[in-house]
Protein backbone atom coordinates (compact mmCIF):
# COMPACT_ATOMS: atom_id res chain seq x y z
CA UNK A 1 0.00 0.00 0.00
CA UNK A 2 1.41 3.38 -0.95
CA UNK A 3 2.12 5.94 1.71
CA UNK A 4 1.63 9.62 1.06
CA UNK A 5 4.57 12.01 1.49
CA UNK A 6 2.69 13.89 4.19
CA UNK A 7 2.05 10.70 6.15
CA UNK A 8 5.71 9.68 5.82
CA UNK A 9 6.96 13.01 7.14
CA UNK A 10 4.52 12.83 10.04
CA UNK A 11 5.73 9.32 10.88
CA UNK A 12 9.36 10.46 10.86
CA UNK A 13 8.49 13.35 13.10
CA UNK A 14 6.74 11.04 15.58
CA UNK A 15 9.63 8.51 15.63
CA UNK A 16 12.43 11.10 15.85
CA UNK A 17 12.66 10.94 19.70
CA UNK A 18 13.05 7.16 19.45
CA UNK A 19 15.36 6.99 16.42
CA UNK A 20 17.84 9.60 17.68
CA UNK A 21 19.04 7.58 20.72
CA UNK A 22 19.16 4.40 18.63
CA UNK A 23 21.32 6.13 16.03
CA UNK A 24 23.61 7.48 18.74
CA UNK A 25 23.99 4.02 20.27
CA UNK A 26 24.71 2.53 16.87
CA UNK A 27 27.42 5.12 16.30
CA UNK A 28 28.86 4.51 19.78
CA UNK A 29 28.96 0.72 19.44
CA UNK A 30 30.25 1.04 15.94
CA UNK A 31 33.11 3.15 17.29
CA UNK A 32 33.84 0.53 19.94
CA UNK A 33 33.78 -2.17 17.26
CA UNK A 34 36.21 -0.23 15.08
CA UNK A 35 38.39 0.57 18.06
CA UNK A 36 38.44 -3.11 18.98
CA UNK A 37 39.56 -3.97 15.46
CA UNK A 38 42.31 -1.37 15.69
CA UNK A 39 43.51 -2.70 19.04
CA UNK A 40 43.36 -6.35 18.07
CA UNK A 41 44.83 -5.74 14.62
CA UNK A 42 44.13 -7.74 11.53
CA UNK A 43 47.68 -8.11 10.34
CA UNK A 44 47.41 -5.32 7.81
CA UNK A 45 47.64 -2.32 10.13
CA UNK A 46 50.69 -0.62 11.63
CA UNK A 47 52.47 -2.09 14.66
CA UNK A 48 51.48 -0.80 18.07
CA UNK A 49 53.78 1.82 19.52
CA UNK A 50 56.28 0.51 22.09
CA UNK A 51 58.93 2.22 24.17
CA UNK A 52 62.21 2.70 22.37
CA UNK A 53 62.04 5.78 20.19
CA UNK A 54 65.71 5.49 19.23
CA UNK A 55 65.38 2.12 17.52
CA UNK A 56 66.62 3.71 14.28
CA UNK A 57 69.94 4.73 15.88
CA UNK A 58 72.75 3.19 13.82
CA UNK A 59 74.85 2.58 16.95
CA UNK A 60 72.32 0.34 18.68
CA UNK A 61 70.67 -2.94 17.78
CA UNK A 62 66.88 -2.94 18.31
CA UNK A 63 65.33 -5.61 20.48
CA UNK A 64 63.37 -6.92 17.49
CA UNK A 65 66.63 -7.72 15.69
CA UNK A 66 68.01 -9.84 18.53
CA UNK A 67 67.58 -13.58 17.97
CA UNK A 68 68.49 -16.71 19.95
CA UNK A 69 72.00 -17.93 19.23
CA UNK A 70 73.43 -14.49 18.44
CA UNK A 71 76.80 -13.85 20.07
CA UNK A 72 78.34 -10.73 21.47
CA UNK A 73 80.34 -9.39 24.38
CA UNK A 74 79.95 -7.27 27.49
CA UNK A 75 82.24 -4.83 29.29
CA UNK A 76 82.78 -4.64 33.04
CA UNK A 77 85.58 -4.04 35.55
CA UNK A 78 86.82 -7.26 37.15
CA UNK A 79 89.69 -5.58 39.00
CA UNK A 80 91.03 -2.04 39.14
CA UNK A 81 89.40 0.60 36.96
CA UNK A 82 89.75 -0.63 33.35
CA UNK A 83 86.77 -2.49 31.79
CA UNK A 84 87.40 -5.97 30.42
CA UNK A 85 85.44 -8.05 27.89
CA UNK A 86 83.54 -11.27 28.45
CA UNK A 87 81.64 -13.20 25.79
CA UNK A 88 77.87 -13.75 25.80
CA UNK A 89 75.38 -15.75 23.75
CA UNK A 90 71.67 -14.91 23.44
CA UNK A 91 69.37 -17.61 24.82
CA UNK A 92 66.02 -15.99 24.06
CA UNK A 93 63.94 -12.81 24.28
CA UNK A 94 61.37 -12.53 27.09
CA UNK A 95 58.57 -10.25 25.93
CA UNK A 96 56.99 -7.84 28.41
CA UNK A 97 59.18 -8.86 31.31
CA UNK A 98 57.87 -5.67 32.89
CA UNK A 99 55.27 -3.34 31.41
CA UNK A 100 56.50 -2.07 28.05
CA UNK A 101 59.95 -3.58 28.52
CA UNK A 102 61.36 -6.84 27.20
CA UNK A 103 64.35 -8.72 28.58
CA UNK A 104 67.02 -10.70 26.76
CA UNK A 105 68.27 -13.91 28.34
CA UNK A 106 71.93 -14.67 27.73
CA UNK A 107 74.59 -17.09 28.84
CA UNK A 108 78.33 -16.46 29.19
CA UNK A 109 81.02 -19.08 28.46
CA UNK A 110 83.71 -16.90 30.07
CA UNK A 111 85.60 -19.00 32.68
CA UNK A 112 85.45 -16.16 35.19
CA UNK A 113 81.64 -16.10 35.09
CA UNK A 114 81.42 -19.88 35.00
CA UNK A 115 83.16 -19.74 38.39
CA UNK A 116 81.34 -16.74 39.92
CA UNK A 117 78.03 -16.61 38.08
CA UNK A 118 76.41 -13.25 37.42
CA UNK A 119 78.06 -10.77 39.79
CA UNK A 120 76.43 -8.06 41.88
CA UNK A 121 78.05 -4.81 40.74
CA UNK A 122 77.88 -5.84 37.06
CA UNK A 123 74.50 -4.12 36.82
CA UNK A 124 74.73 -1.81 33.82
CA UNK A 125 77.56 -3.65 32.07
CA UNK A 126 77.01 -2.78 28.38
CA UNK A 127 76.30 -5.70 26.05
CA UNK A 128 77.21 -5.45 22.38
CA UNK A 129 75.79 -7.63 19.60
CA UNK A 130 77.12 -7.22 16.05
CA UNK A 131 79.33 -4.46 17.52
CA UNK A 132 76.22 -2.44 18.36
CA UNK A 133 75.00 -1.55 21.83
CA UNK A 134 72.13 -3.87 22.73
CA UNK A 135 71.53 -3.07 26.39
CA UNK A 136 72.73 -3.56 29.95
CA UNK A 137 73.28 -6.62 32.08
CA UNK A 138 70.71 -6.14 34.81
CA UNK A 139 69.10 -9.38 35.96
CA UNK A 140 70.15 -12.73 37.31
CA UNK A 141 69.10 -15.76 39.32
CA UNK A 142 70.13 -16.40 42.90
CA UNK A 143 71.85 -19.71 43.56
CA UNK A 144 72.14 -20.24 39.79
CA UNK A 145 74.41 -23.05 38.61
CA UNK A 146 75.00 -21.43 35.20
CA UNK A 147 76.07 -17.86 34.32
CA UNK A 148 72.60 -17.03 33.00
CA UNK A 149 71.59 -13.38 33.07
CA UNK A 150 69.05 -10.89 31.76
CA UNK A 151 69.59 -7.73 29.73
CA UNK A 152 67.59 -4.48 29.73
CA UNK A 153 67.24 -3.20 26.12
CA UNK A 154 69.10 0.03 25.44
CA UNK A 155 65.99 1.39 23.71
CA UNK A 156 64.20 1.61 27.06
CA UNK A 157 67.24 2.99 28.84
CA UNK A 158 67.80 5.84 26.40
CA UNK A 159 64.40 7.28 27.22
CA UNK A 160 65.63 7.90 30.77
CA UNK A 161 68.62 9.88 29.42
CA UNK A 162 66.22 12.50 28.05
CA UNK A 163 64.61 13.18 31.43
CA UNK A 164 65.68 16.52 33.00
CA UNK A 165 67.20 17.29 36.38
CA UNK A 166 64.35 18.18 38.73
CA UNK A 167 65.82 19.80 41.87
CA UNK A 168 62.41 21.18 42.81
CA UNK A 169 61.06 17.65 43.24
CA UNK A 170 61.82 15.85 46.48
CA UNK A 171 61.08 12.13 46.24
CA UNK A 172 59.91 10.12 49.22
CA UNK A 173 60.67 6.42 49.40
CA UNK A 174 57.55 4.38 50.06
CA UNK A 175 57.17 3.71 53.76
CA UNK A 176 54.55 2.91 56.33
CA UNK A 177 53.15 5.70 58.50
CA UNK A 178 51.22 5.97 61.71
CA UNK A 179 48.24 8.08 62.61
CA UNK A 180 48.20 11.62 61.26
CA UNK A 181 47.32 15.08 62.52
CA UNK A 182 46.43 15.70 66.14
CA UNK A 183 46.08 11.98 66.84
CA UNK A 184 49.71 11.38 65.93
CA UNK A 185 50.76 14.38 68.03
CA UNK A 186 48.91 12.91 70.99
CA UNK A 187 50.60 9.56 70.44
CA UNK A 188 54.09 10.98 70.33
CA UNK A 189 54.14 14.05 72.56
CA UNK A 190 51.32 13.71 75.06
CA UNK A 191 51.49 9.92 75.39
CA UNK A 192 47.70 9.74 75.31
CA UNK A 193 47.78 6.92 72.77
CA UNK A 194 49.78 3.74 73.01
CA UNK A 195 49.74 2.57 69.38
CA UNK A 196 53.24 1.98 68.06
CA UNK A 197 54.08 3.68 64.80
CA UNK A 198 55.06 0.98 62.29
CA UNK A 199 58.63 1.00 61.03
CA UNK A 200 59.42 1.90 57.45
CA UNK A 201 59.11 -1.09 55.14
CA UNK A 202 62.40 -1.66 53.37
CA UNK A 203 62.71 -3.59 50.12
CA UNK A 204 63.91 -6.75 51.92
CA UNK A 205 60.52 -6.98 53.63
CA UNK A 206 58.72 -7.15 50.29
CA UNK A 207 58.74 -10.55 48.54
CA UNK A 208 61.82 -10.71 46.36
CA UNK A 209 64.51 -8.05 45.75
CA UNK A 210 63.05 -4.55 45.29
CA UNK A 211 59.54 -5.98 45.42
CA UNK A 212 60.02 -8.26 42.40
CA UNK A 213 58.43 -11.73 42.58
CA UNK A 214 60.79 -14.09 44.37
CA UNK A 215 62.31 -17.19 42.83
CA UNK A 216 62.85 -15.95 39.28
CA UNK A 217 64.80 -13.52 37.17
CA UNK A 218 65.36 -10.50 39.40
CA UNK A 219 67.45 -7.30 39.40
CA UNK A 220 71.02 -8.02 40.46
CA UNK A 221 70.96 -5.02 42.75
CA UNK A 222 73.80 -2.72 43.71
CA UNK A 223 76.03 -4.14 46.47
CA UNK A 224 76.80 -1.40 49.00
CA UNK A 225 80.51 -1.37 49.78
CA UNK A 226 81.08 -0.05 53.29
CA UNK A 227 84.31 1.14 54.88
CA UNK A 228 85.08 2.28 58.41
CA UNK A 229 81.81 0.88 59.82
CA UNK A 230 81.38 -1.76 62.49
CA UNK A 231 79.31 -4.84 61.62
CA UNK A 232 76.33 -3.68 63.70
CA UNK A 233 76.42 -0.17 62.22
CA UNK A 234 76.62 -1.68 58.74
CA UNK A 235 73.63 -3.90 59.49
CA UNK A 236 71.63 -0.91 60.74
CA UNK A 237 72.52 0.91 57.53
CA UNK A 238 71.46 -2.10 55.46
CA UNK A 239 68.10 -2.22 57.23
CA UNK A 240 67.59 1.52 56.67
CA UNK A 241 68.61 1.57 53.00
CA UNK A 242 67.43 -1.84 51.87
CA UNK A 243 70.83 -2.50 50.28
CA UNK A 244 73.16 -5.44 50.86
CA UNK A 245 76.38 -4.33 52.64
CA UNK A 246 79.76 -5.69 51.59
CA UNK A 247 82.23 -5.33 54.46
CA UNK A 248 85.59 -4.88 52.85
CA UNK A 249 87.22 -1.64 53.95
CA UNK A 250 89.31 0.66 51.81
CA UNK A 251 92.17 0.02 49.43
CA UNK A 252 95.87 0.86 49.43
CA UNK A 253 95.57 1.63 45.72
CA UNK A 254 92.74 4.14 45.93
CA UNK A 255 92.02 6.85 48.46
CA UNK A 256 88.50 6.83 49.92
CA UNK A 257 86.08 9.44 48.67
CA UNK A 258 86.18 12.67 50.62
CA UNK A 259 82.70 13.70 49.57
CA UNK A 260 84.17 16.72 47.78
CA UNK A 261 83.78 17.42 44.08
CA UNK A 262 86.70 16.13 42.03
CA UNK A 263 89.31 18.70 41.06
CA UNK A 264 90.25 19.28 37.44
CA UNK A 265 93.18 16.91 37.76
CA UNK A 266 91.01 14.06 39.02
CA UNK A 267 88.08 14.44 36.64
CA UNK A 268 87.24 11.03 35.24
CA UNK A 269 86.74 10.46 31.51
CA UNK A 270 83.85 8.06 31.42
CA UNK A 271 83.56 5.11 29.05
CA UNK A 272 80.98 2.30 28.87
CA UNK A 273 81.90 -0.48 31.29
CA UNK A 274 83.40 1.83 33.93
CA UNK A 275 82.66 1.16 37.59
CA UNK A 276 80.38 3.80 39.15
CA UNK A 277 79.29 4.28 42.77
CA UNK A 278 76.34 6.16 44.23
CA UNK A 279 77.82 7.81 47.33
CA UNK A 280 75.74 7.73 50.52
CA UNK A 281 78.57 8.22 53.06
CA UNK A 282 82.03 9.58 52.27
CA UNK A 283 85.16 10.54 54.19
CA UNK A 284 86.54 8.61 57.16
CA UNK A 285 83.53 6.31 56.84
CA UNK A 286 82.07 5.12 53.57
CA UNK A 287 78.98 3.56 52.04
CA UNK A 288 78.37 3.44 48.30
CA UNK A 289 76.20 1.13 46.16
CA UNK A 290 78.19 0.09 43.10
CA UNK A 291 77.31 -0.71 39.50
CA UNK A 292 78.50 -0.18 35.93
CA UNK A 293 78.10 2.54 33.30
CA UNK A 294 76.17 1.41 30.20
CA UNK A 295 76.13 4.45 27.95
CA UNK A 296 77.91 7.82 27.70
CA UNK A 297 76.39 10.67 25.67
CA UNK A 298 75.51 14.34 25.54
CA UNK A 299 77.23 17.24 23.81
CA UNK A 300 80.05 17.23 26.38
CA UNK A 301 79.77 13.53 27.28
CA UNK A 302 78.03 14.69 30.45
CA UNK A 303 75.18 12.16 30.37
CA UNK A 304 75.54 8.61 31.69
CA UNK A 305 73.19 5.66 32.04
CA UNK A 306 73.90 2.84 34.48
CA UNK A 307 72.52 -0.19 36.37
CA UNK A 308 69.83 -1.24 33.85
CA UNK A 309 67.38 -1.41 36.76
CA UNK A 310 66.31 1.04 39.49
CA UNK A 311 68.16 1.64 42.74
CA UNK A 312 64.97 2.61 44.59
CA UNK A 313 62.73 3.66 41.71
CA UNK A 314 62.23 7.08 43.34
CA UNK A 315 62.19 9.06 40.11
CA UNK A 316 63.94 12.46 40.39
CA UNK A 317 67.01 12.09 42.63
CA UNK A 318 70.09 13.99 43.78
CA UNK A 319 72.63 11.48 45.09
CA UNK A 320 76.34 12.11 44.43
CA UNK A 321 78.18 9.68 42.15
CA UNK A 322 81.86 8.74 42.00
CA UNK A 323 84.10 6.70 39.77
CA UNK A 324 84.71 3.33 41.38
CA UNK A 325 87.72 1.12 42.00
CA UNK A 326 87.08 -2.65 42.05
CA UNK A 327 89.35 -4.51 44.47
CA UNK A 328 88.20 -8.01 43.65
CA UNK A 329 85.16 -10.20 43.13
CA UNK A 330 83.91 -12.13 46.14
CA UNK A 331 82.62 -15.43 44.75
CA UNK A 332 79.54 -16.89 46.41
CA UNK A 333 77.06 -19.67 45.75
CA UNK A 334 74.15 -17.30 46.40
CA UNK A 335 75.32 -14.19 44.54
CA UNK A 336 78.90 -13.12 43.92
CA UNK A 337 79.61 -9.41 44.41
CA UNK A 338 82.22 -6.85 43.50
CA UNK A 339 84.20 -5.39 46.37
CA UNK A 340 84.71 -1.77 45.41
CA UNK A 341 85.50 1.69 46.75
CA UNK A 342 84.37 5.09 45.44
CA UNK A 343 87.10 7.45 44.29
CA UNK A 344 86.16 11.10 43.64
CA UNK A 345 82.76 12.77 43.37
CA UNK A 346 82.07 13.21 39.66
CA UNK A 347 78.45 14.33 39.43
CA UNK A 348 74.90 13.50 40.46
CA UNK A 349 72.35 10.77 39.94
CA UNK A 350 69.34 12.75 38.70
CA UNK A 351 66.82 10.02 37.79
CA UNK A 352 66.05 6.63 39.32
CA UNK A 353 63.78 4.75 36.92
CA UNK A 354 62.77 1.21 36.01
CA UNK A 355 65.12 0.79 32.99
CA UNK A 356 68.15 2.66 34.39
CA UNK A 357 69.55 5.37 36.60
CA UNK A 358 70.50 8.61 34.86
CA UNK A 359 73.71 10.41 35.87
CA UNK A 360 75.05 13.86 35.01
CA UNK A 361 78.68 14.91 35.37
CA UNK A 362 77.88 18.62 34.92
CA UNK A 363 75.56 18.74 37.94
CA UNK A 364 76.86 18.61 41.51
CA UNK A 365 74.91 18.37 44.73
CA UNK A 366 76.57 19.10 48.10
CA UNK A 367 76.82 16.50 50.85
CA UNK A 368 76.16 17.20 54.53
CA UNK A 369 79.31 17.29 56.70
CA UNK A 370 79.13 15.15 59.84
CA UNK A 371 81.78 15.21 62.58
CA UNK A 372 81.62 12.35 65.07
CA UNK A 373 83.81 12.11 68.17
CA UNK A 374 84.01 9.18 70.56
CA UNK A 375 85.48 8.76 74.05
CA UNK A 376 85.76 5.30 75.56
CA UNK A 377 85.52 4.28 79.22
CA UNK A 378 89.23 3.48 79.61
CA UNK A 379 91.58 6.44 80.19
CA UNK A 380 93.92 4.97 77.59
CA UNK A 381 91.18 5.32 74.99
CA UNK A 382 91.80 8.87 73.83
CA UNK A 383 89.04 10.88 72.19
CA UNK A 384 88.92 10.26 68.46
CA UNK A 385 87.17 12.33 65.81
CA UNK A 386 85.95 11.23 62.40
CA UNK A 387 85.03 13.55 59.56
CA UNK A 388 82.47 12.25 57.10
CA UNK A 389 79.76 13.50 54.77
CA UNK A 390 76.33 12.02 54.04
CA UNK A 391 73.99 12.34 51.08
CA UNK A 392 71.27 14.98 51.29
CA UNK A 393 68.05 12.93 51.25
CA UNK A 394 64.78 13.45 53.07
CA UNK A 395 64.51 9.74 53.81
CA UNK A 396 68.12 8.55 54.09
CA UNK A 397 69.97 11.45 55.77
CA UNK A 398 68.70 10.72 59.33
CA UNK A 399 69.64 7.00 59.31
CA UNK A 400 72.97 7.79 57.63
CA UNK A 401 73.87 10.18 60.47
CA UNK A 402 72.64 7.65 63.03
CA UNK A 403 74.82 4.97 61.42
CA UNK A 404 77.91 7.09 62.09
CA UNK A 405 76.88 7.55 65.73
CA UNK A 406 76.26 3.82 66.18
CA UNK A 407 79.69 3.09 64.76
CA UNK A 408 81.24 5.50 67.28
CA UNK A 409 79.27 3.95 70.15
CA UNK A 410 80.41 0.46 69.24
CA UNK A 411 84.01 1.62 69.02
CA UNK A 412 83.77 3.34 72.41
CA UNK A 413 82.61 0.24 74.20
CA UNK A 414 80.63 -2.86 73.30
CA UNK A 415 81.42 -4.48 76.67
CA UNK A 416 78.52 -6.40 78.20
CA UNK A 417 78.86 -4.55 81.51
CA UNK A 418 77.16 -1.73 83.35
CA UNK A 419 77.71 1.51 81.40
CA UNK A 420 76.32 4.99 80.94
CA UNK A 421 76.17 6.47 77.46
CA UNK A 422 76.28 10.25 77.05
CA UNK A 423 75.47 11.60 73.59
CA UNK A 424 75.41 15.12 72.24
CA UNK A 425 74.11 16.32 68.88
CA UNK A 426 74.49 19.78 67.39
CA UNK A 427 72.29 19.92 64.29
CA UNK A 428 72.50 23.01 62.07
CA UNK A 429 69.20 23.43 60.23
CA UNK A 430 67.96 25.92 57.67
CA UNK A 431 64.27 26.90 57.89
CA UNK A 432 62.26 29.83 56.57
CA UNK A 433 63.31 31.72 59.71
CA UNK A 434 66.98 31.27 58.82
CA UNK A 435 69.68 29.01 60.27
CA UNK A 436 69.28 27.56 63.74
CA UNK A 437 71.24 25.02 65.77
CA UNK A 438 69.54 22.40 67.89
CA UNK A 439 71.60 21.01 70.77
CA UNK A 440 70.46 17.67 72.18
CA UNK A 441 72.03 16.05 75.25
CA UNK A 442 71.03 12.55 76.33
CA UNK A 443 72.28 10.28 79.10
CA UNK A 444 71.22 6.63 79.20
CA UNK A 445 72.00 3.78 81.57
CA UNK A 446 72.52 0.24 80.26
CA UNK A 447 72.86 -2.53 82.89
CA UNK A 448 74.47 -5.11 80.56
CA UNK A 449 76.14 -3.17 77.81
CA UNK A 450 74.76 -0.77 75.23
CA UNK A 451 71.64 -2.00 73.46
CA UNK A 452 72.28 -0.74 69.96
CA UNK A 453 68.66 -0.92 68.91
CA UNK A 454 67.71 1.48 71.71
CA UNK A 455 70.69 3.72 71.03
CA UNK A 456 69.55 4.04 67.41
CA UNK A 457 66.16 5.40 68.48
CA UNK A 458 67.54 8.70 69.69
CA UNK A 459 65.76 12.04 69.80
CA UNK A 460 68.28 13.28 67.25
CA UNK A 461 67.00 10.74 64.73
CA UNK A 462 63.40 11.73 65.48
CA UNK A 463 64.15 15.44 65.10
CA UNK A 464 66.02 15.02 61.81
CA UNK A 465 63.18 12.93 60.42
CA UNK A 466 60.60 15.47 61.58
CA UNK A 467 62.57 18.40 60.17
CA UNK A 468 62.95 16.86 56.72
CA UNK A 469 59.43 15.41 56.54
CA UNK A 470 57.14 17.97 58.15
CA UNK A 471 53.77 19.42 57.08
CA UNK A 472 54.85 23.06 57.26
CA UNK A 473 57.75 23.82 54.92
CA UNK A 474 60.88 22.52 53.26
CA UNK A 475 63.86 22.42 55.61
CA UNK A 476 67.42 21.27 55.16
CA UNK A 477 70.21 19.99 57.38
CA UNK A 478 73.47 21.89 56.83
CA UNK A 479 75.82 20.08 59.21
CA UNK A 480 75.89 17.75 62.21
CA UNK A 481 78.36 17.51 65.09
CA UNK A 482 77.84 14.55 67.39
CA UNK A 483 79.74 12.90 70.21
CA UNK A 484 79.50 9.76 72.31
CA UNK A 485 81.08 9.26 75.75
CA UNK A 486 80.91 5.92 77.56
CA UNK A 487 81.48 5.47 81.32
CA UNK A 488 81.93 2.24 83.23
CA UNK A 489 79.69 1.87 86.23
CA UNK A 490 76.80 4.16 86.91
CA UNK A 491 75.24 6.36 89.53
CA UNK A 492 71.76 5.04 88.90
CA UNK A 493 68.79 4.44 91.17
CA UNK A 494 65.32 3.03 90.58
CA UNK A 495 62.17 4.36 92.25
CA UNK A 496 61.03 1.46 94.44
CA UNK A 497 58.24 2.96 96.57
CA UNK A 498 56.70 6.32 97.42
CA UNK A 499 54.60 7.43 100.40
CA UNK A 500 53.47 10.72 101.87
CA UNK A 501 54.09 11.99 105.40
CA UNK A 502 51.11 14.36 105.55
CA UNK A 503 48.28 12.93 107.66
CA UNK A 504 45.78 15.23 105.99
CA UNK A 505 46.32 16.78 102.58
CA UNK A 506 44.68 20.12 101.90
CA UNK A 507 44.62 22.40 98.90
CA UNK A 508 47.75 24.54 98.76
CA UNK A 509 49.76 22.25 101.10
CA UNK A 510 53.38 21.37 100.45
CA UNK A 511 53.25 17.61 100.04
CA UNK A 512 56.18 15.78 101.66
CA UNK A 513 56.97 12.56 99.81
CA UNK A 514 59.33 9.81 100.93
CA UNK A 515 60.93 8.13 97.93
CA UNK A 516 62.72 4.79 98.31
CA UNK A 517 65.54 4.65 95.75
CA UNK A 518 67.24 1.34 95.05
CA UNK A 519 70.67 1.14 93.36
CA UNK A 520 71.64 -1.90 91.22
CA UNK A 521 73.54 -3.26 94.23
CA UNK A 522 73.46 -2.27 97.87
CA UNK A 523 70.82 -1.05 100.31
CA UNK A 524 67.83 1.13 99.47
CA UNK A 525 68.00 4.74 100.54
CA UNK A 526 65.15 7.16 101.19
CA UNK A 527 64.99 10.72 99.90
CA UNK A 528 62.40 13.34 100.73
CA UNK A 529 60.97 15.46 97.93
CA UNK A 530 58.18 17.99 98.02
CA UNK A 531 55.45 18.96 95.57
CA UNK A 532 52.82 21.63 96.24
CA UNK A 533 49.14 20.77 95.88
CA UNK A 534 47.29 23.33 93.69
CA UNK A 535 45.43 25.89 95.78
CA UNK A 536 42.11 25.21 94.02
CA UNK A 537 42.26 21.39 94.21
CA UNK A 538 40.10 21.10 97.33
CA UNK A 539 37.53 18.32 97.12
CA UNK A 540 39.35 16.56 94.27
CA UNK A 541 41.02 13.16 94.07
CA UNK A 542 44.39 13.73 92.43
CA UNK A 543 47.08 11.34 91.24
CA UNK A 544 50.65 11.90 92.40
CA UNK A 545 53.26 10.48 90.03
CA UNK A 546 57.04 10.46 90.45
CA UNK A 547 59.27 9.34 87.60
CA UNK A 548 62.79 9.58 86.27
CA UNK A 549 63.44 12.45 83.89
CA UNK A 550 64.03 10.29 80.82
CA UNK A 551 60.76 8.45 81.49
CA UNK A 552 58.55 11.56 81.37
CA UNK A 553 57.60 13.54 78.26
CA UNK A 554 56.92 17.27 78.68
CA UNK A 555 53.53 18.55 77.62
CA UNK A 556 53.79 20.66 74.49
CA UNK A 557 51.37 22.71 72.38
CA UNK A 558 50.40 21.64 68.91
CA UNK A 559 52.99 23.16 66.57
CA UNK A 560 51.90 25.97 64.27
CA UNK A 561 55.12 26.01 62.26
CA UNK A 562 58.33 24.05 61.83
CA UNK A 563 60.26 25.96 64.49
CA UNK A 564 57.53 25.21 67.04
CA UNK A 565 57.72 21.55 66.07
CA UNK A 566 61.49 21.46 66.55
CA UNK A 567 61.27 23.26 69.89
CA UNK A 568 58.71 20.76 71.15
CA UNK A 569 60.72 17.75 70.04
CA UNK A 570 63.92 19.13 71.55
CA UNK A 571 62.29 19.69 74.95
CA UNK A 572 63.08 17.01 77.52
CA UNK A 573 63.82 16.46 81.17
CA UNK A 574 67.33 15.53 82.38
CA UNK A 575 67.95 11.88 83.21
CA UNK A 576 69.40 12.95 86.59
CA UNK A 577 66.12 14.25 87.98
CA UNK A 578 62.83 13.22 89.57
CA UNK A 579 59.74 14.65 87.92
CA UNK A 580 56.89 15.13 90.38
CA UNK A 581 53.47 15.49 88.73
CA UNK A 582 50.03 15.98 90.25
CA UNK A 583 47.31 14.99 87.80
CA UNK A 584 43.86 16.48 88.35
CA UNK A 585 40.46 15.28 87.13
CA UNK A 586 39.96 18.19 84.74
CA UNK A 587 41.28 18.41 81.22
CA UNK A 588 43.25 21.00 79.33
CA UNK A 589 43.87 21.59 75.64
CA UNK A 590 47.05 21.48 73.61
CA UNK A 591 46.37 23.90 70.76
CA UNK A 592 48.39 25.69 68.13
CA UNK A 593 48.40 28.73 70.39
CA UNK A 594 49.75 26.99 73.49
CA UNK A 595 48.67 24.87 76.44
CA UNK A 596 45.33 25.90 77.96
CA UNK A 597 44.70 24.46 81.42
CA UNK A 598 42.01 24.54 84.11
CA UNK A 599 39.08 24.95 81.73
CA UNK A 600 35.42 24.48 82.69
CA UNK A 601 33.67 21.80 80.66
CA UNK A 602 31.57 24.36 78.76
CA UNK A 603 34.66 26.32 77.71
CA UNK A 604 36.47 23.08 76.87
CA UNK A 605 33.72 22.10 74.45
CA UNK A 606 33.63 25.59 72.93
CA UNK A 607 37.35 25.61 72.19
CA UNK A 608 37.29 22.14 70.63
CA UNK A 609 34.16 22.12 68.44
CA UNK A 610 33.19 18.84 66.85
CA UNK A 611 32.61 20.51 63.49
CA UNK A 612 36.25 21.56 63.06
CA UNK A 613 38.94 19.51 61.32
CA UNK A 614 41.62 21.13 63.52
CA UNK A 615 40.72 19.60 66.86
CA UNK A 616 42.86 20.41 69.83
CA UNK A 617 44.33 17.56 71.88
CA UNK A 618 42.88 17.00 75.35
CA UNK A 619 45.26 16.27 78.22
CA UNK A 620 45.01 15.90 81.95
CA UNK A 621 45.60 19.04 83.96
CA UNK A 622 48.83 18.74 85.87
CA UNK A 623 51.10 20.55 88.28
CA UNK A 624 54.70 19.54 87.73
CA UNK A 625 58.05 20.06 89.46
CA UNK A 626 61.58 19.02 88.43
CA UNK A 627 63.83 17.86 91.30
CA UNK A 628 67.50 17.55 90.32
CA UNK A 629 69.44 14.50 91.56
CA UNK A 630 73.05 13.32 91.54
CA UNK A 631 72.12 9.95 90.04
CA UNK A 632 70.20 8.79 86.99
CA UNK A 633 66.65 7.98 88.08
CA UNK A 634 64.76 5.11 86.50
CA UNK A 635 61.19 3.92 86.82
CA UNK A 636 58.07 5.60 88.13
CA UNK A 637 55.44 5.20 90.85
CA UNK A 638 52.08 6.79 91.61
CA UNK A 639 49.35 6.97 94.24
CA UNK A 640 45.92 8.58 94.62
CA UNK A 641 45.32 11.33 97.17
CA UNK A 642 42.06 12.85 98.44
CA UNK A 643 42.55 16.61 98.81
CA UNK A 644 40.50 18.47 101.39
CA UNK A 645 39.63 22.14 101.03
CA UNK A 646 42.07 24.62 102.50
CA UNK A 647 41.46 25.71 106.07
CA UNK A 648 39.49 28.88 106.41
CA UNK A 649 41.40 31.80 107.90
CA UNK A 650 39.67 33.17 111.04
From TrEMBL:
Transmembrane segments: none annotated. Residues 254-263 have a biased composition (Polar residues). Residues 1-173 form the Peptidase S55 domain. It comes from the Bacteria. Residues 251-270 are annotated as: Disordered. This is SpoIVB peptidase S55.
